[in-house]
Please model this.
Amino acid sequence: MIEQAARIKVAIQKSGRLTDRSLELLERCGLKYTRGRDQLIGYGENMPVDVLLVRDDDIPGLVRDDVCDLGVVGMNVLEERRLQFQAEGVSEPFRVVRPLDYGRCHLAFGYPEDGPVRSLAELPGRRIATSYPRIVQDFLRRNAIAAQVVEFSGAVEIAPSLGRADVICDLVSTGATLAANRLREGETILDSQAVLIQTPREVAPAKTEWIARLLQRIDGVMQVRESKYVMMNAPVSALAEIARLLPGADAPTVIPLEGRGDKVAVHVVCRENVFWETLENLKKAGASSLLVLPVEKMLP
Ligand code: PRP
Ligand code: ZN
Model:
């Protein structure tokens, strides 16, 4: 039984766009946890790591207050909170340790399709509905635009039709919500993805080793996502061309084929996805018996 003080707490979004992928990431890092029905904490069984499922807006504060050692949150939420902490005089509430390459979306203006505002130039004097008031204020200040920010905690998209705002600034992923509310997407003010944050303060020595191991495993998981193990047979004369065609490949392993002096087997790890076009080009270059396999784990 590992002591309570040595257990690492990771905060993730309870239910929303980042939940499934965040849990999947931790599982792929080897974490097995038990979580009762409706329980907001998952207890790690095989690692001293517990998962707290909370509102995404609370994650930056939980890390700042050292209630949690790590947190997974969108850049959008993080930036809004960072501006708030900055206004309160807190200079480094958390540290971004890894971009996680999922949960991509952006914060953009949305203009009513039949309204008068069509671009930033027409914003002065208008009311902007958003649930990211600090990011929007900061953008307006930096661009010297005098407009009014109206804070909404949800359903920002309906603010113009309710007559509560002229335009909106909200998160866009597929764009379906904008379209459903007859809003045209305008300028982007922030690109977002999920990031891993950590407290900037020193953690208990008992925790540092497992935090480092977790980070290394996250790096491994992210690397194998796109990685492929590619095998083929090829004439020796085509090796240079094959190496040129393979995306992000390490040095290939070349194995002689029994009784075929002119042909070899080539095995190579590609750190990028391998598309059909690449396979077709490899075939044109002389390769045959092409096989592309997913990579399960990787530890450089
Ligand atoms: C965001 C945003 C929109 C929607 C846009 O909400 O407020 O409603 O996603 O996505 P779309 O472009 O794919 O239609 P989110 O689900 O992140 O909830 P939250 O803001 O309450 O956390
Ligand atoms: Zn939220």
Summary: The CA atoms of residues 9 and 67 lie 8 Å apart. Residues 105-192 form a domain with the D-Maltodextrin-Binding Protein; domain 2 fold (CATH 3.40.190.10). The chain has three domains: 4-102+194-223, 105-192, 228-294. Helices lie at 19-28, 59-64, 75-87, 133-142, 176-180, 205-226, 239-245, 276-284.
